[in-house]
Design goal:
The structure holds 2 protein chains of 2 kinds. By secondary structure, chain A is an alpha+beta fold. Chain A has 16 helices and 18 strands. In chain A, strands 1, 2, 3, 4, 5 and 6 form a 6-stranded antiparallel beta sheet that branches. In chain A, strands 8-7-11-10-9 form a 5-stranded antiparallel beta sheet. The longest helix of chain A is centred in the first third of the chain and has 70 residues, at 20-89. Chain B has 2 domains: 38-140 and 273-301, Rossmann fold (3-Layer(aba) Sandwich), CATH 3.40.50; 142-271, Response regulator (Rossmann fold), CATH 3.40.50. Chain B is built from 12 helices and 12 strands. Chain B has helices at 2-30, 52-64, 80-92, 105-114, 142-156, 173-183, 207-217, 228-239, 254-262, 273-285, 295-298, 313-319; strands at 37-42, 67-72, 97-100, 121-124, 137-140, 162-166, 192-196, 222-225, 246-250, 265-271, 299-300, 302-306. In chain B, the strands form 2 sheets. A 6-stranded parallel beta sheet of chain B has the order 2-1-3-4-5-11, sandwiched between helices. Chain B has a 6-stranded mixed beta sheet with strand order 7-6-8-9-10-12, with helices on both faces. Classes of the chains: A alpha+beta, B alpha/beta. The A-B interface holds A 19, 21-22, 136-138, 162-164, 166, 173, 175-177, 204-205, 208, 212, 235-239, 241-244, 297-298, 301-302, 304-305, 308-309, 311-312, 315-316, 319 and B 4, 8, 11-12, 15-16, 18-19, 22-23, 25-26, 30-31, 56-57, 60, 254-255, 257-258, 261, 263, 272, 274-275, 278-279, 311, 313-314, 316-318, 320-324.
């Protein structure tokens, strides 16, 4: 049981590993073949049962016909006997008249079926016979069985089994096989009634021919017995007498009329029995069932041929259909495999086959395209991030800024402004410390403001206090996160473009608004036109260089890369009025970020 | 992919092969009309009726084996050359088997021994001289038949009678064996036994006249004929001769039976030629035709009948061949 279960599981597993084309074609073929087999077997069983039944019915019809023919023949013989007895013998006084003439007439009228007619007294004396023939010497009619039977059953007509007639002399060494119809008659002689026997010898060959004709056409054979089973006719009669063939005649004679199944001499046979009216003779039809089966073998083989042909066609058809249905799937599968291998080329996904498969292909293709776009976006984002970080890094070590700052320090030292020089160097040191921030990109807003303050200090010295600056920060946001060095580029722009005269003022503000953090750098410089303003934060057409606004764009991109959503820069400017650049950041506590929190 | 295609190709080939085999089987084995085989039954003598029992037996067996039997008689009683010609003619005509009642055991036996005919054959009633012949002989035991006949004569007749034995057709082995059995028997059935045999000068004489002369010249009580030919010749010689003789013999021809019925013949021993024909054809054309036939199988029964019992049902069925 367990082994069988394992075997089934193993087959199922192996089967499951096969391609959908093989599975579908084999499955459909097996189901179709099984269906055809079941149908074929059912139809064949039904057909063979009907054929068997039909054969038995046919046998019944045959023996009905034979029985009817035989009955007619016997009734004819009996009517000959009756008419001769009642019309001739009963009306004739044998002392005065002879019955020979009537006997001859009767014989001539029926000589095809008769061998002879004879009338014998109870003493065995021959009153008359037709055709006229000499009585055999030494033959005593009274000892013959037909005579004894007639005497024994006075009221009845007696039919003998076939025998060789042993009454009259025959020329040319001829002997006749006859069936004797004998009856007891009353003979009148001088008015006295005397018993006698009327004998009509029926030509046995008439019966023989009747059956021989039937047996020529029959699958089996038909034979005739008397009521005791004594064979009257059998196609192998002499072989039976010679012991070369056996027949179940005694038993079959006991069967009721109808069809029976018997086994005789190791052979199963279908036997149909019909009793012939008055005589009680039995017409028996025997058909070996093997003979019936033999005739079915042609049908069986024909069915097998048709079945094989159908299997052949079904297999071919299934394979073609399975191919037609599954080939698009296979090709789609190959496309997906290539995708798995990392091949994201355009038009790589197969779209074909039936509607469902085409739809699936299109869906996968669409997904791939989306995925490809996402990946491109991601790659671009990463690239931009890296570039902006590089730009930020570059901002940290701007050599001009460093050179100018150091030049200012030298100038201060030469002018013996040591205190200012110390402040300058200290600011520069703090600036660099925050710029480095141990490599971190995210720092606190307090540090970023400190960095901006130091930067302004340095630039004030460099620009000889051409501008004033104000720094305002809401203490509530000091410990929140920001990307480092995002204020410095804004201050740098404000200094470059917003400090044209002595009244120039730069304001740096940090505050919370609507849950976000805002950092504003405002100057009262030249301001910008709307057109310049619109192009400032657009990457397209932007080239790197002083005054190109690359610093602003860079800051905006960095904020957008780190903090998704609506965060970034906002610029408000009016020509001759000044400019306000506003950084908008999400409010995230630096402590939370350090604990592993996300920025977006 | 390649493996799958190979599997499909193999399945297709197997199915195609099965289809072809089934079709061939259906066309050439199931629906083919089986050719009817021809069996030639070549007998001696010109009287076909004499072989009726044998023919009927052969035909009945042939019918079961999808074969047909053709009875071929000769133009004379015994002509070995003619019988050889008939054998050759039947082979040329496409006979599938031969049953031969040899008219001359020495010549026919020797001819068949020296000239293999390529088709199965068997002997009935009269076989070859050589008992080692490969072909079986379907016949009763000649010696036992002869002895049974003698015992009956001894029983029915007085012991002082003179008996004559017709010695003719000794070219047939069956006759020779019966005569030998009679002449060499220890059974005391007659005081004197004479052999009626033509001498060299009488060879051309008709047997009927030879026997009539013998019957006239020599007073005998019993005449014995050991085969159908001799019996019929003896009957022809006796019928119109007013001689009170008793005839015994081994025969079953219609004429012999008729004269048994008439009382001229006292007793007949006859063999069941129906069975001989039936068994010979069954063995010749049956499934086991290549197996050697046992003596038990080829040995046919014989019966004895006289005027009193010839109409017994058992004998009627054997003697009167009209019943098929």
């Amino acid at each position: 049981m367990k082994k069988t279960k394992n075997l089934i599981t193993s087959i199922k597993n192996k089967y499951g590993m096969r391609s959908i084309q093989l599975i579908s074609s084999v499955s459909f073929t097996l189901i179709a073949v099984a269906g055809m087999m079941i149908m074929g077997i059912a139809l064949y069983s039904q057909f063979s049962a009907r054929a068997m039944r039909s054969a038995v019915e046919n046998d019944k019809q045959v023996i009905e016909q034979v029985g009817w023919n035989l009955n007619t023949y016997i009734r004819n013989m009996m009517s000959i006997s009756d008419s001769f007895y009642y019309s001739v013998i009963k009306k004739t006084d044998l002392y005065e008249d002879s019955i020979i003439k009537e006997m001859d007439l009767l014989y001539e009228a029926n000589k095809d079926n008769l061998i002879s007619i004879a009338c014998i007294t109870e003493d065995g004396a021959l009153i008359g016979a037709s055709p006229v023939a000499g009585r055999k010497e030494g033959v005593d009619f009274r000892k013959q069985s037909w005579f004894k039977e007639a005497q024994g059953k006075i009221e009845n007509t007696h039919f003998s089994t076939p025998h060789v007639q042993n009454m009259f002399e025959n020329s040319n060494y001829r002997y006749y096989w006859v069936v004797s119809l004998s009856r007891s008659v009353e003979l009148t002689k001088r008015g006295n009634i005397q018993k006698g026997v009327l004998l009509i010898d029926m030509n046995y060959s008439a019966i023989e021919q009747m059956f021989a004709r039937v047996n020529e056409k029959s699958r089996g054979y038909v034979y005739l017995t008397d009521r005791n089973g004594e064979i009257i006719y059998h196609p192998r009669q002499k072989a039976i007498y010679a012991g070369l063939y056996q027949e179940n005649n005694r038993r079959a004679a006991q069967y009721e009329d109808g069809d029976h199944l018997e086994t005789f001499a190791g052979q199963e046979r279908s036997v149909v029995v019909k009793t012939v009216g008055y005589t009680g003779w039995k017409v028996i039809s025997v058909t070996p069932t093997s003979q019936l089966a033999l005739s079915m073998s042609q049908t069986r083989m024909f069915t097998l041929i048709v079945l094989t042909l159908m299997i052949f066609l079904v297999l071919a058809g299934n394979m073609y259909i399975a191919y037609a249905v599954t080939d698009p799937l296979r090709r789609l599968d190959e496309s997906v495999r290539k995708l798995e291998e990392g091949n994201y080329d355009e038009d790589n996904i197969y779209i074909g086959g039936s509607y469902e498969i085409r739809h699936l292909g299109r869906t996968i293709d669409s997904m791939v395209k989306q995925m490809r776009k996402l990946m491109d976006d991601m790659v671009r984002e990463q690239r931009d991030k890296r570039r902006s970080e590089l730009d930020a890094l570059q901002s940290q070590i701007n050599p001009h800024f460093l050179y100018n700052t150091l030049d200012s320090v030298i100038w201060m030292v030469e002018a013996e402004r040591y205190k200012d020089a110390i402040t300058m160097v200290t600011s520069l040191a703090t600036l660099f410390r925050i710029s480095l921030s141990k490599g971190a990109n995210i720092i606190t807003i307090r540090d970023e403001f400190t960095h901006a303050e130091n930067y302004l200090k340095i630039q004030k010295v460099r620009y000889k206090n051409k501008f004033t600056s104000t720094i305002e920060i809401d203490p509530a946001i000091e410990e929140c996160c920001t990307i480092k060095l995002i204020i410095q580029p804004l201050l740098e722009n404000a200094i470059y473009y917003g400090t044209m005269d002595e009244d120039s003022e730069i304001t740096l503000k940090g505050y919370e608004k609507d849950g976000d953090i805002c950092i504003e750098v405002t100057d009262n410089g030249l301001g910008m036109t709307q057109e310049t303003l619109d192009s400032l934060l657009k990457e397209k057409g932007r080239t790197r260089g002083k005054g190109s606004g690359i610093g602003l764009w860079n800051v905006d991109q960095r904020i957008r890369l780190y903090f998704k959503g609506d965060y970034g820069l906002q610029i408000e400017s009016e020509p001759d009025e000044g400019t306000t650049v506003r950084i908008r950041l999400p409010k995230i506590l630096y402590e939370d970020y350090k604990k592993g929190g996300q920025l977006s | 992919m390649k493996k799958r295609n190979t599997n499909v190709l193999i399945i297709a080939l197997i199915l195609a092969l099965a289809l072809i085999l089934e079709f061939v089987y259906y066309k050439y084995f199931l629906t083919r009309e089986e050719q009817i085989r021809q069996i030639s039954l070549i007998v001696y003598g010109s009287d076909a009726a004499r072989w009726e029992n044998l023919r009927q037996g052969a035909e009945l067996a042939a019918r079961d084996l999808n074969a047909e039997v053709t009875l071929i008689t000769m133009s004379s009683e015994s002509d070995a050359k003619e019988q050889i010609t008939l054998i050759r003619r039947e082979i040329v005509n496409g006979a599938d088997g031969l049953l031969i009642a040899a008219c001359d055991s020495d010549v026919i036996g020797s001819y068949l021994e020296k000239h293999p005919i390529g088709i199965p054959y068997a002997f009935v009633e009269s076989g070859p001289k050589d008992e080692k012949s490969q072909a079986p002989l379907y016949a009763a035991d000649d010696q036992k038949m002869a002895e049974a006949l003698l015992k009956n004569i001894a029983t029915n007749e007085k012991d002082w009678i003179k008996a004559a034995v017709v010695c003719d057709h000794t070219e047939r082995d069956s006759v020779r064996k019966r005569l030998n059995a009679i002449m060499n028997s220890d059974i005391s059935y007659a005081e004197e036994v004479v052999l009626w045999e033509k001498n060299e000068q009488e060879q051309h004489k008709k047997a009927q006249f030879f026997l009539q002369r013998k019957l006239t010249e020599e007073a005998v009580d019993v005449v014995i004929a050991v085969d159908n030919s001799s019996m019929e010749e003896l009957l022809d010689a006796t019928v119109n001769l007013n001689k009170d003789i008793k005839i015994y013999g081994i025969a079953d021809s219609a004429k012999s039976v008729y004269y048994l019925d008439k009382g001229l013949i006292k007793l007949l021993v006859f063999q069941d030629e129906f069975s001989a024909g039936y068994k010979a054809v069954s063995d010749l054309m049956g499934k086991d035709r290549k197996q050697p036939v046992s003596t038990e199988r080829s040995l046919i029964r014989y019966e004895m009948i006289d005027h009193a019992n010839m109409y017994d049902m058992a004998y009627q069925k054997m003697l009167f061949p009209h019943l098929r």
